[in-house]
Specification:
This protein has about 70 residues and is mainly α. It contains 4 helices and no strands. The longest helix is centred in the C-terminal third of the chain and has 10 residues. About 5% of the residues are buried.
Length: about 70
């Protein structure tokens, strides 16, 4: 895509640590799989890293080679 970092946009995952997430962690006593956590997080305003990358790709803000490299 582009050389260097100028003009690049971030691809990030954002998770708000709220009462739903806190309650889940306490209820499970910290013992859970990533898929269980992802399911609970998806019920909140969780912004998934993979989804963010694909949204940026569809908006032509990043190129496919960069997305494939980070996923």
């Amino acid at each position: 895509c582009k050389g260097g970092y100028k003009g690049r946009v971030p691809v990030v995952g954002i998770l708000e640590f709220n009462e739903v997430i806190r309650g889940f962690i306490i209820e499970k006593d910290g013992e859970f799989t990533s898929s269980e956590f992802h399911k609970v997080a998806s019920s909140t305003r969780f912004r998934d890293f993979r989804k963010s990358a694909l949204e940026r790709l569809s908006q032509e803000e990043v190129c496919l080679s960069d997305v494939l490299e980070i996923l």
